[in-house]
């Protein structure tokens, strides 16, 4: 940081898909986050933080803008957000920050335009033959519903270019069921941490950056160094799932056994441990460079992950990855913040929202040496809302009723040992309603409130759409295929 400036540096680290429940910071039985725990000794731990949505584009849009999902309405992977509405553009123009984004997340860096707010953008180059179609003809990934071998062959034969379509179909099958396929599906978070650190070393003034770490995201493929809790049978099971999204394979009466999905959680834990190593890499480097005390460092996640957990509001809806619902496993995320010059630990049990991150950034700039107390902490400024509209009937008419939204939740403190009360509503006509007392990331129990529907309705009715959405991107086959490889419903 420039010695002539009192502006703090800003570093936002998003541990993509890391749910609070599986961090040892929040009491998980596997030691998945030793670096985050060590870092928390000089930072503030928000034990009841919630993501604004359950998938990357909507959550990142809220984190970028400070707007709730119904206000920005960026809900599609290809959504376009006005760069003028983001904290990163304000940091560039109003505060003269140098900005950078370092992410392997295809939703952020390729499908949407969320990267456009940054001066420097570092993303992986996946434009290779493994992801491209061979010919301009039918490809199995052109359809939203995966129809199996016979269905794809029928479509190829009856298409206008059957020979080329069959070539695409056989190529896709080889690619997806190749036992080595998972070896090159994701980029290592450590690589992007290195890219950030190289960029940071060249800055001669205040900088603001986001590092996105995808190591815990599906496919769950931690390296041997961090794969501490699985085994050959679980890794073989994971390999056998290549070619279809997890949500397609596990929902419904003909789905795979739910115990299989639960077994994959051990691989997921290894991915969290690998992401935690990136935290150590970043914190260690900033400390050695003398930059840590001059930096607002925010470490969080954009959403969690589901391994078959049931919803309180719709028990027949079981969480798979982060495709639907507002299950606590998907909305409760870690949030650890080191304010500039903070050296003592603090634990906050009031509900905190990632939507308030832009306000926290601006507060740190205005008062860089002041560590907020709970009465003056922008991250605790309500309301705390979570929403997702996915899944929609027009997209997946084959999906059972309990999986459809919209899902809306409002969180408020209970005043009882840090527990948070969650009011949740699913659907619009004759909606399902539930009240949940979230004691911790490990424990939630159904509660009772006759006011939950009113609380949710009034909170969301108070929000008004803003003019920050700008249509959708046109994306190519390589991006579409990469999203499918990462388990997203097409």
Mean pLDDT: 86
The share of residues in helices is 25-40%
Rg, alpha carbons: 22 Å
Number of strands: 20
Distance between the terminal alpha carbons, to the nearest Å? 43 Å
Largest sheet: 8 strands, mixed
* Secondary structure category: alpha/beta
Strands in their spatial order, largest beta sheet: 6-5-7-1-8-12-2-13
Model regions low in confidence, pLDDT < 50 over at least 5 residues: 126-134, 179-184
| Structural shape | globular
Strand content: 15-25%
Number of helices: 16
What does this structure look like?
This protein is of the alpha/beta class and 490 residues long. It is built from 16 helices and 20 strands. The strands form 5 sheets. The chain has an 8-stranded mixed beta sheet, sandwiched between helices. Strands 15-16-17-18-19 form a 5-stranded antiparallel beta sheet, with helices on one face. A hairpin with a 7-residue loop joins strand 9 (306-310) and strand 10.
Which features would summarize this protein structure in a list?
16 helices; 8-stranded mixed sheet; 20 strands; 490 residues
């Amino acid at each position: 940081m420039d010695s002539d400036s009192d502006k703090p540096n800003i570093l936002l680290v998003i541990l993509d898909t890391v749910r609070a429940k599986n961090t040892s910071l929040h009491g998980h039985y596997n030691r998945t986050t030793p670096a985050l725990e060590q870092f928390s000794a000089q930072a503030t731990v928000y034990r009841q933080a919630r993501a604004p949505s359950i998938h990357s584009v909507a959550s990142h849009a809220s984190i970028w803008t400070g707007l709730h999902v119904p206000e920005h309405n960026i809900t599609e992977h290809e959504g376009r957000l006005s760069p003028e509405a983001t904290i990163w553009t304000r940091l560039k123009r109003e505060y003269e920050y140098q900005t950078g984004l370092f992410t392997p997340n295809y939703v952020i860096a390729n499908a949407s335009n969320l990267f456009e707010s940054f001066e420097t953008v570092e993303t992986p180059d996946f434009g290779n033959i493994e992801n491209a179609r061979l010919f301009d003809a039918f490809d199995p990934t052109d359809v939203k519903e995966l129809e199996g071998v016979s269905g794809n062959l029928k479509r190829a034969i009856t298409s206008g270019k059957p020979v080329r379509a069959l070539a695409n179909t056989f190529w896709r099958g080889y690619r997806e069921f190749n036992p080595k396929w998972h070896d090159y599906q994701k980029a290592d978070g450590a690589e992007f941490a290195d890219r950030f650190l190289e960029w940071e070393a060249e800055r001669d003034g205040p900088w603001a950056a986001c590092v996105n770490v995808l190591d815990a995201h599906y496919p769950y493929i931690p390296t041997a160094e961090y794969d501490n809790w699985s085994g050959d049978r679980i890794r073989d099971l994971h390999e056998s799932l290549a070619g279809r999204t997890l949500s397609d394979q596990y929902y419904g009466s003909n789905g795979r056994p739910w115990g299989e999905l639960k077994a994959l959680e051990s691989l997921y834990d290894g991915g969290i441990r690998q992401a935690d190593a990136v935290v150590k890499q970043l914190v260690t480097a900033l400390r050695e460079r003398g930059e840590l005390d001059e930096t607002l460092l925010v470490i969080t996640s954009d959403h969690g992950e589901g391994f078959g957990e049931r919803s309180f509001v719709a028990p027949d809806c079981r969480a798979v990855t982060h495709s639907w619902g507002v299950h606590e496993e998907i909305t409760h995320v870690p949030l650890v913040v080191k304010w500039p010059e903070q050296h003592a630990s603090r634990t906050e049990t009031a509900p905190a929202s990632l939507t308030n991150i832009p306000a926290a950034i601006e507060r740190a700039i205005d008062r860089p040496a002041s560590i907020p107390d709970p009465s003056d902490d922008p991250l605790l400024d309500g309301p705390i809302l979570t929403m997702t509209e996915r899944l929609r009937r027009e997209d997946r008419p084959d999906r059972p009723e309990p999986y459809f939204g919209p899902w809306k939740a409002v969180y408020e403190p209970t005043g009882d040992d840090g527990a948070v009360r969650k009011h949740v509503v699913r659907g619009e006509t004759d909606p399902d309603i539930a009240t949940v007392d979230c004691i911790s990331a490990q424990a939630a129990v159904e509660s009772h409130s006759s006011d939950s529907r009113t609380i949710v309705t009034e909170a969301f009715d108070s929000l008004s759409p803003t003019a920050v959405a700008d249509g959708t991107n046109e994306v190519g086959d390589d991006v579409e295929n990469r999203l499918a490889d990462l388990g997203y419903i097409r």
